Automatic annotation (TrEMBL):
<dbReference type="InterPro" id="IPR018357">
    <property type="entry name" value="Hexapep_transf_CS"/>
</dbReference>
<dbReference type="Pfam" id="PF00132">
    <property type="entry name" value="Hexapep"/>
</dbReference>
<keyword id="KW-0677">Repeat</keyword>
<comment type="subunit">
    <text>Homotrimer.</text>
</comment>
<dbReference type="InterPro" id="IPR020573">
    <property type="entry name" value="UDP_GlcNAc_AcTrfase_non-rep"/>
</dbReference>
<dbReference type="GO" id="GO:0103118">
    <property type="term" value="F:UDP-3-O-[(3R)-3-hydroxyacyl]-glucosamine N-acyltransferase activity"/>
</dbReference>
<comment type="similarity">
    <text>Belongs to the transferase hexapeptide repeat family. LpxD subfamily.</text>
</comment>
<keyword id="KW-0808">Transferase</keyword>
<dbReference type="InterPro" id="IPR011004">
    <property type="entry name" value="Trimer_LpxA-like_sf"/>
</dbReference>
<feature type="active site" description="Proton acceptor">
    <location>
        <position position="257"/>
    </location>
</feature>
<dbReference type="InterPro" id="IPR001451">
    <property type="entry name" value="Hexapep"/>
</dbReference>
<feature type="domain" description="UDP-3-O-[3-hydroxymyristoyl] glucosamine N-acyltransferase non-repeat region">
    <location>
        <begin position="33"/>
        <end position="101"/>
    </location>
</feature>
<keyword id="KW-0443">Lipid metabolism</keyword>
<keyword id="KW-0441">Lipid A biosynthesis</keyword>
<dbReference type="InterPro" id="IPR007691">
    <property type="entry name" value="LpxD"/>
</dbReference>
<comment type="function">
    <text>Catalyzes the N-acylation of UDP-3-O-acylglucosamine using 3-hydroxyacyl-ACP as the acyl donor. Is involved in the biosynthesis of lipid A, a phosphorylated glycolipid that anchors the lipopolysaccharide to the outer membrane of the cell.</text>
</comment>
<protein>
    <recommendedName>
        <fullName>UDP-3-O-acylglucosamine N-acyltransferase</fullName>
        <ecNumber>2.3.1.191</ecNumber>
    </recommendedName>
</protein>
Length: 358
């Protein structure tokens, strides 16, 4: 059985072209006409590959690297072995990503999994739906009445686009997604298995049973948002749930009803955001963070992984812990706990009479 490689480069770049693209400074004697066909890690790169080095953790691989060229931070440039063409640049990783994007533009956005053009014979598109020319609908997908989908958008297999949903241009809706009660902008990527626009979790609880609260509003996803696989975003109850432009959401994130997320936020995997919380622009939430309902996290604030946010966070601050608090206070607490644990552990003597039998 063959071993396929799922992405093929769309072009090649010379070392000189990479230098121009990234603003890097070629080292003395660098072969500017050398052709670079691929990108690779420093230890695995071959003569036609581009590698990079910015983290000292990987500096040991530099003397043995066979890369055709290496983007390198200034502090490592003098350590490069003779014969390794170096391109010195302030931010090697960012430069490396720019080259990878140029070589592999097809990896930036999912395409039809069935190789479809237009609406596949196995898809179900309601006669009252409106699809612009250039829309691709894979087998098993369902597009409901009144839905509108813009040109260049791909609807993956078994995805469901509900009645009246609007999806903009050049979007990708992954396999098995469901979208209801939603308005989606342009260039949005929704990875497989997402659930967008389902009921928010709202009940009036009582001794005689729990009364469901009608969820009457929408999910609005602005331009250039990317949503990871398995993420769920509830529609609003009394106001729209909004995901601001350019925001990036990882896999397996839960976003509750009425949540407002600003522009260019980053929300990492397994985070949960409770109803009516507000994230202003450029907020970062680490993996498995939890945000309580009605909390406001200010612009540019950052929350550490596995933190529990129960109160508002001022703009620009870094918080962490359970419950979350300013990072300095959190670190002081951790150090104090560690000192206490060490002092008690060093002085304790085990008493054989002190066991569960007494």
């Amino acid at each position: 059985m063959s071993e396929p490689f799922f992405f093929e480069p769309a072009t090649t770049l010379t070392v000189a072209e990479i230098a121009r693209l990234t603003g890097a400074e070629p080292g003395p004697g660098a072969p500017l006409d050398r052709v670079i066909r691929d990108v690779a890690t420093l230890d695995q790169a071959g003569p036609s590959d581009l590698a990079f080095l910015e983290n000292p953790r990987y500096a040991d691989a530099l003397p043995r690297s066979r890369a055709g060229a290496c983007l390198i931070a200034p502090r490592f440039a003098a350590s490069a072995p003779a014969g390794l063409p170096v391109l010195t640049v302030r931010d090697p990783h960012r430069a490396f990503v720019a080259v990878a994007r140029a070589l592999y533009p097809s990896a930036l956005r999912p395409v039809s999994l069935f190789g479809s053009q237009g609406v596949s014979p196995g898809a179900s598109v309601h006669p009252a739906a409106r699809l612009e020319s250039g829309v691709v609908v894979d087998p098993g997908a369902v597009v409901g009445p009144g839905a509108e989908i813009g040109t260049g958008t791909v609807i993956g297999p078994t995805a469901v686009v509900g009645p009246g949903v609007r999806i903009g241009r050049d979007c990708a809706i992954g396999a098995g997604c469901t979208l209801t009660h939603a308005l989606v902008g342009d260039r949005v990527i929704i990875h497989p298995g997402c659930r967008i626009g389902q009921d928010g979790f709202g009940y009036v609880m009582g001794a005689g049973g729990h009364q469901k609260v009608p969820q009457l509003r929408r999910v609005i996803i602005q331009n250039d948002v990317e949503i990871g696989a398995g993420t769920t975003i509830d529609r609003g109850g009394t106001r729209d749930t909004v995901i601001g432009e350019g925001t990036k959401i990882d896999n397996l994130v839960q976003i509750g009803h009425n949540v407002l997320i600003g522009r260019h936020c980053v929300i990492v995997a397994q985070t949960g955001i409770s109803g009516s919380a507000v994230l202003e622009d450029y907020v970062v939430l680490g993996a498995r963070a939890g945000v309580n309902n009605h909390v406001v996290i200010g612009e540019g604030a950052q929350v550490a992984a596995v933190s529990g946010v129960n109160s508002d966070i001022p703009r620009g601050e870094r918080w962490g812990g359970v419950p979350a608090k300013p990072a300095r206070a959190w670190m002081r607490e951790l150090r104090a706990i560690n000192r206490l644990a060490q002092s008690r552990g060093g002085g304790d003597k085990t008493d054989p009479s002190d066991d569960d039998r007494h």
